[in-house]
Amino acid sequence: MDLNAKPKAVAATALERVLNRPSREEAEAAVRTLIAWAGDDPTREGLLDTPRRVVDAYREFFGGYDEDAAAILQTTFSEVGGYDDIVLVRDIPFHSHCEHHMVPFVGKAHIAYLPHDGVVGLSKLARVTDVFAKRLQTQENLTAQIIEAINEAINPRGAAVMLEAEHMCMSMRGIRKHGASTVTHRFTGVFAEDRQEQDRFFALIRAGR
Questions:
Q1: What is the mean pLDDT of the chain?
Q2: Distance between CA 193 and CA 167 in Å, rounded?
Q3: Whole-angstrom Cα distance, residue 84 to residue 179?
Q4: Measuring CA to CA, how many Å separate 146 from each of 47, 52, 112, 132?
Q5: Structural domain boundaries, residue 47
Q6: Rounded mean pLDDT, 35-51
Q7: How far apart are CA 53 and CA 49, in angstroms?
Q8: Which residues make Cβ contacts (< 8 Å) with residue 59, sequence separation at least 6?
């Protein structure tokens, strides 16, 4: 089996995205089309600069396509005084966009791992969350991508990720249930095998509330 197959495929996909990305002018024209489709006049004074602003905002909202989670996690620290217990960063705020309706979902991530060969800077876990959140997503896929990146980068004895979020596609449209929260979680290694470790993860999250 070619162990390098997956990274090469990912790199090719990223390159294809860059090569196929429309120009800024094309993106702004698309915004003007949507404004007109919504029923307004894209040439009126208040909307003249809107296409530029929307394209700028989209570049920020979806900046995760231009970032590499593996690069963020590549620096680890082994001098931790023999510490090998749970490392947990809870209540990491994030915002993403639903790939089905392209409207936001907003919430918090809780990330834990049991060190094996070393630890990463705590801010790196927040940055990795942002890398994947700043893409078109489902919450389920976002949960999986975060934990897979951690496993590949630092090879922990176990990892746990839990996301809690409110989806605007439920709050602003469709069923319109404001305040409904969606929870997803994923466990690997020791966390997947040992229910006591799962319970400890949940207890540590609750302890901060």
A1: 90
A2: 31
A3: 38
A4: 38, 32, 11, 7
A5: 5-61
A6: 98
A7: 6
A8: none
pLDDT of residue 59: 96
**Which residue type is seen at 78?**
S
- Residue 30 tokens, joined: 């698309």
What is the amino acid identity at position 196? Q
Report the Cα–Cα distance between both ends of the chain, in Å, rounded: 46
| CATH (domain of 48) | 1.10.286
Which residue is associated with the tokens 């009126």?
Answer: 44
The Cα 92–Cα 70 span in angstroms is 19
* 111 and 181 housed in the same domain: yes
Instruction: Convert the pLDDT of each residue in 90-129 to its tens digit.
Output: 999 999 999 999 999 999 999 999 999 889 999 999 999 9
DSSP 46: G
Domain total in the chain: 2
What's the pLDDT at 76? 87
159 and 90 together in one domain:
yes
* 68 in any annotated domain: no
Q: Are residues 105 and 197 in the same domain?
A: yes
Q: In this structure, which amino acid lies at residue 182?
A: T
Burial of 81 (0-12, 13-18, 19+ CB in 10 A): exposed
Question: Any alpha helices (H) in 48-138, and if so which ranges?
Answer: 50-61, 69-72, 122-133
Looking up tokens 């024209």 gives 29
Cα dihedral 153, 88, 96, 189 in deg (nearest 10): 50
**Global confidence as pTM:** 0.86
Which CATH number fits the domain that encloses residue 163? 3.30.1130.10
